[in-house]
Amino acid sequence: MSSGDRKALVGRYLKVVAAHLPATQRDDVVAELRDEIESRLDDRVEALGRDLSEDEIEQVLREVGHPLSVAARYRPGPSHVVGPELYPYWRFAIRAGLLVLLILAGLGLVARVASGDPDVGEVLVDSLTGLFSGAITLVGIATLVAYMIERQSERPRWLHDWKVKDLGLYEFGVSDDWLDNLTRTGGASKTEQTAKRRRSETGEALSNVIAWTVVLLWWTGTFRIPGLHPMEWEYVRAGVDWGAMTRETYQWLYFPVIAFGLTRVAFDLGRAAWPGAWLYAGVGGAAFALGRVALAAWLWLASPFSAAIAVQTWPEFVDRARAAFHPGYDTAGIVMLIVAFIAVEGVFTVVGSLARMGRAAR
C-alpha cells in the first residue's frame, strides 16, 4: 500500500477521533495520536520488512482502539453514565421504586376486577402495560439523576459522610433473596424484623424521596395504572356521583399536589444530605404537616366533597362514623373519617416536630 493511501487511512481515523473531542484539546490530541499510530506502523513495517497492506494497517488501528473509545479517554469528566461509586445507589433506588410500582399495579388490577370488569385478560394486559411503562420511566429518571450527579465537581455528601445508624432502610428490598425472606416460615423474616426497627432519619428521608417520585409519576399520568387514576374513577352510590366529585377534586388539586410533591422531594434530599440538621428537619416537617391540615380543611369546607361529608356538630360526626361500616357501609362516612384522620395526623405531626426541636435545642 502506498504512503499516500496509508496517510489517507490514518487521516480518516484521526478525523473521526477529532469529531468527538473538545475544540480546546483537538489539535494536541490528534498530533499525539498521529505520532503514536505512525510509530506503531513503522515498527510493524520494520518487523515484516515490507510495506503494510490495507488490512494490516486496519489491524494496527484496531489495536489503538475504536475512535469513539479513544476520544472518550481524552475527554474531561467521567466516561460513563453511572459510575461504580454511584451504581449501588442507582440500583437500590430502581429496585425500591419498582417494588412500589408493582404494589400500585396490583392495587389497580384488584380494583378493576372488584368493580366487575368482565374481561380479566384485558385488565391483566393493561396492568402489565402500565407497569412496564412506569418501570421504563423510573429507570430513565434514575439514570438522568445519576448522570447529573456524576458530572458535579463535588460528590454529594451522603456518598461518603454516612453513619451505620443511618443504614436501616437499605436492609429492606435490596438483597436478592428478599422473596425467600418474605415466604420463609419458622421465625420472623428479615422484613418483619426490619419493620420493628426505628428507621433512621436518612433512611426515612430516602424512602420518602422514592415514594413521592412514584406518586408524582402516577398523579401526572406518566405511570398509568388502569382503573386507579382519579380521572378514571366511576362510582355512584345512593344517588351520589363520587366519581365525578373525585375528578373535579383532582383537577383542583393537580398543580398544588405537584408543587407539594416536588418541594417534599427537595426537602427530603436535604434531610438525607444533612441528617443532623434538626432545625431544618423540624421546621420542614411541621410545615408539610400544616399543609396536610390545610388540605383536610379544604376538603371539608370548600371541595366538591364538602356537601357530602361535612357535619356541623360532634353528635352528627359520631353518628355518621358509626354508620360508616354498620350496617353495610356508608361512603360519605368513610370519606369523612379519612379527611378527619388527615387533619388529626397533621396536627399531631406538627406537635411532635416542635417537641423534637425543643429536645434537640436543649
UniProtKB/TrEMBL annotation:
The record's Pfam families line, in alphabetical order, gives:
HAAS
UniProt keyword terms in alphabetical order: Membrane, Transmembrane, Transmembrane helix
Q: Where are the transmembrane segments?
A: 92-111, 131-149, 205-225, 249-267, 279-301, 334-355
How is this protein named in the record? Answer: Uncharacterized protein
